[in-house]
Amino acid sequence: MTIYIPTPLRPYAAGKDAVDVNAGTVSGALDELTQTFPDLRKHLFTAEGKLRAFVNVYLNDEDIRYLPEKDATAVSAGDTLSIVPSIAGGCQVSDRMNSFLWLTRFPTLSPERRRKGRARSW
Amino acid sequence: MATATVPVELPELTKDELARYSRHLILPEVGEEGQRKLKAARVLCVGAGGLGSPLSLYLAAAGVGTLGLVDFDVVDKSNLQRQIIHSTADIGRKKLDSAAEKLEALNPEVKVVKHDTLLSSANALDILKDYDVIADGTDNFPTRYLVNDACVLLGKPNAYGSIFRFEGQASVFATADGPCYRCLYPEPPPPGLVPSCAEGGVLGILPGLVGVIQATETIKLILGKGATLAGRLLLVDALNMRFRELKLRKNPECPVCGAHPTVTQLIDYQQFCGLAPAKKEENAVKNGIPQITVTELKRRIEAGEDLFILDVREPFEYQIANIGGKLIPQNEVPQRLGEIDRDREIIVHCKGGVRSQRIAEFLKQSGYSEVVNVAGGILAWSSEVDATLPKY
Ligand SMILES: [Zn+2]
Q: How far does the centroid of ligand 1 lie from the alpha carbon of residue B186, in Å?
């Protein structure tokens, strides 16, 4: 089955946006995922092994919290698991940081060159 | 389905409005009645930034009668990559003034109400109560939860949108029978655990995509037409241009909209999100890690002590401002322990003290006996020791 990794957690999963695993249940799939990428574990689970309150896991389009068997639900090869953390959105802070970044990285560039450099960064 | 509350007595359309909205009037789903509903409607956009730009522009163009904006920020050059309601000439102006001017120019029929404030527990109910639909386009967790709780308490639907890098989420929360944001996420992430936007950036087009979805949902809520995103979470992946949809359920145990709510009035959302300013205590110890103040650190540096200062921020942050510490970004620390001297006192710092605290705890667990965290990080250094160091 395929597990979709959300953008904020990709740095802890070698940058991957999806990972294929072979598992019989939802928890088995998450175990396999976090064994492959141990850094993910603390982002997904509390020290007690509970899924964190700001991370939701969906089997296909259904929240596993509302499945009768929750994370013990059986999965098959064609299923998908989506990890969906909360994101706040907006990014005011990064703006100021990015301005600084360009100014500090290329202090000698003309404003025009800086703009070009900036456009290239996307 | 849940719809916004619109007065029974709908205002008439003027001749001018009949001409302006003719493409709406010939749409059976809008028509003259729908257009009059739009004219009667009052929508509050929380934030006049990335999401608020397309959102408010389209709502104004569509003829929403009263458009409220909440914002207290000023336009910065780096906003212009995505906040399309502002232009280069607006740099340094209040976003509210800049946005209101564009909206009034686009559609003089619209009444724009400016709320020049930071939405807070003290003012949110008072501001939100005069609107039919709330469109949340803010950029931080405390305001997300504040807007959600206020919408639930007031019974106002919330057209929600959120973005990170190339990814967006949209839904409609707090309709009569639908789930709220807390049904989806009962608690915010602790600060620092999930990479913040500050470390992430955002594709400039993405707020356009997501903000227009919020505008669409707002219009549908007003018209009472179609199927809104209530009960569904739409995921937008702009990089692969994939839209996915997940089912959202109302949590019967939700602390704010559940059967037995424990949140019955607005709370302290900074504290709820773990952002309450920490009490300043000299020589405090947090989770077994002694905290050093920036003034004490400066005193020790000036006394000529040979200190091992570990900076666990990202390289680009180091470029902006540093105090000469050894740079090992937090995620690389576990693999680079060999570069950190076990026999010395390790003084860890980051931007604000959260990441460094975590790394300090990690080092302690990894067998380092003397690990100290710099309380307040380089921001505190800039405030209290060296004001020439840029704040970012
Ligand atoms: Zn709820």
A: 8
Domain ranges of chain A: 2-85, 90-122
Res. B339 pLDDT band, cuts 50 70 90: very high
Q: What is the pTM of this model?
A: 0.73
Annotate B280-301 with b (16+ C-beta within 10 A) or e (fewer): eeeeeeeeebbbbbbeebeeeb
Q: Where are the alpha helices (DSSP H) in chain B?
A: 15-20, 22-25, 31-40, 52-62, 95-106, 124-128, 141-154, 181-184, 206-223, 269-272, 294-302, 315-320, 354-365, 377-384
pLDDT in tens, B120-130: 999 999 999 99
Give the residue from chain A lying closest to B236, CA to CA. A6
Residue B148: name the closest of B178, B186, B180 by CA.
B180
DSSP H/E element including A97: helix A92-105
Closest residue to B390, CB basis, from A8, A12, A100: A100
**Beta partners for residue A83, in sequence order:** A57
**Spatial contact of B149 and B198, defined as CB atoms under 8 Å apart:** no
Q: Is the pLDDT of residue B200 over 80?
A: no
Among B78, B171, B206, B239, the strongest candidate for a mutation testing the A interface, having the largest count of A CBs within 10 A, is B78
Report all structural domains of chain B as residue ranges with CATH numbers, in order of start: 15-272 (3.40.50.720), 280-384 (3.40.250.10)
Q: What is the mean pLDDT of residues B167-189?
A: 94
Residues B185, B165: Cα–Cα separation, whole Å = 20
Q: Does position A21 have pLDDT exceeding 90, yes or no?
A: yes
Bridge pairing between strands B285-286 and B158-164: unpaired
Please tell me the CATH code under which domain A2-85 is placed.
Answer: 3.10.20.30
Catalytic residue among B151, B183, B197, B254: B197
- Helix (H, G, I), strand (E, B), or coil: what is residue B33? helix
In sequence order, what are the beta bridge partners of B170? B161, B234
CB crowding A11-40: b at 16 or more within 10 Å, else e: bbbeeebebebebebbbbbbebbbeebeeb
Dihedral Cα A20, A24, A27, A29, nearest 10 deg: -10
* ipTM, two decimals: 0.73
Average pLDDT over residues B11-40: 97
